[in-house]
Design brief:
This protein is α/β, with parallel strands linked by helices. The protein is 48% helix and 11% strand. Strands 3-2-1-4-5-7-6 form a seven-stranded mixed beta sheet, sandwiched between helices. It starts with 25 loop residues before the first helix and ends with a strand.
Length: 368
């Protein structure tokens, strides 16, 4: 089998933290993957949250792969936090809870870090003091939205009322009557336009294969999240609007998951490189579950099919892969149904519950 190369690697820059948190809902990821005890799992590293969540299902191991050393430094510090800190202290280090002692908490974690990760974080002391969950380009983009755009649309009282949430009818009523103004729609579309997101939030290369209006599609998904899901249970929305996790935490940071992640933390393996290189290293028929983030968003259809073909060589029958489409539709060709099938009903039903509401599709596929 000919080895493939990640297409985005030659187009985008990978030196700094892009994502200081995983902006994908681990709750629907775990439900879609249905990880079994003893499974071998592979996931896109990002900031590490979702790979850590996979540990709660007692797999044999979880391989977290990322091309960006800064992202691996994020994961290493989270791992060190699970090993060395109490739950409340970890939340302070992330920024989920207020703290005046984050540098002290970091000092407790230093001995668990590699030389490279330790050097990285010593050069980013301000990011530690501000909470490492706010250190990425994407998080800074949301901070601009929170600081400069939202005050032009809604008062702090209105934001707090939205985040109180409630029953579905209450959420719909509040959104329709008090939130969904012409100013909200107009400024949202400006801030989340392709140009603005490419300049401030994501690398412009990530939009190479996107067609149509970026802002209109994100606004439609945001409307669903604010009307049909409970904002009081949504950690992603809460961070965007307040810069912290007010009443809800993502899966990996919840108290009930802390001990299981800590107990299995040594089953997490970090790999610097591409997904393709990690698959090559593992060899044939070794992987049971794959968390692929939205990796295919940045690839042509042809490259997507090449990577999925390599995945099929690396997975066993009954293996599952899960990934998101944000703006570019990507999934296995229907003609490959004898090799891999799309669990369409499962993916569609989980998307309706997706608290990280930017995505247009959640794809779950099973190897035949």
């Amino acid at each position: 089998m000919k080895k493939t190369e990640t297409e985005i690697a030659g187009k985008a820059s990978f030196e700094k933290i892009r994502y200081a948190q995983c902006w994908e809902d681990a709750d629907i990821l775990l439900e879609g993957l249905d990880i079994q005890e003893g499974d071998v799992c592979l996931g896109i590293g990002s900031a590490g949250d979702n790979c850590l969540s996979m540990l709660t299902r007692n797999p044999a191991k979880v391989i977290a792969v990322d091309m960006n050393p800064a992202q691996l430094a994020c994961i290493e510090l989270r791992v060190a936090g699970f090993k060395r800190l109490r739950h409340r202290e970890l939340l302070e280090l992330i920024g989920s809870r207020p703290s005046e002692r984050r540098l002290e908490l970091f000092a407790q974690c230093e001995n668990e870090l590699s030389k490279e990760a330790l050097l990285f974080w010593r050069e980013h002391q301000d990011d530690i003091e501000n909470g490492i969950g706010s250190a990425g380009k994407f998080e800074r983009y949301f901070a601009l939205f929170r600081k400069y755009v939202i005050p032009l649309i809604h008062s702090e009282k209105q934001v707090n009322r939205l985040l109180q949430g409630g029953e579905t009818e209450d959420c719909r009523g509040y959104y329709d009557v008090h939130w969904d103004s012409w100013r909200w729609r107009m400024l949202f579309k400006v801030f989340f336009s392709r140009w603005m997101m490419g300049r401030l939030g994501r690398d412009p290369a990530f939009f190479t294969y996107v067609e149509g209006s970026v802002a209109d599609r994100i606004l439609s998904r945001t409307r669903h999240a604010l009307r049909e899901l409970n904002p009081g249970d949504n950690p992603y929305l809460q961070w965007i609007l307040t810069g912290t996790h007010a009443t809800a935490l993502p899966h990996a940071l919840r108290a009930e998951n802390f001990e299981s992640i800590r107990n299995n933390i040594d089953r997490l393996e970090l790999r610097l490189g591409t997904l393709e290189s990690a698959l090559e290293t593992e060899g044939s028929k070794k992987i049971d579950r794959l968390n692929l983030s939205d990796i295919f968003e940045y690839m042509s259809r042809e490259m997507t099919e090449k990577v999925i073909d390599q995945i099929l060589h690396s997975t066993r029958r009954g293996s599952r892969l899960a990934y998101w489409n944000m703006l570019a539709p990507r999934y296995s060709p229907d003609a490959w149904s004898d090799r891999i099938i799309r669990l369409r009903d499962l993916g569609d039903s989980l998307l309706l519950k997706d608290k990280a509401f930017f995505y247009s599709a959640f794809i779950v596929e099973e190897v035949q």
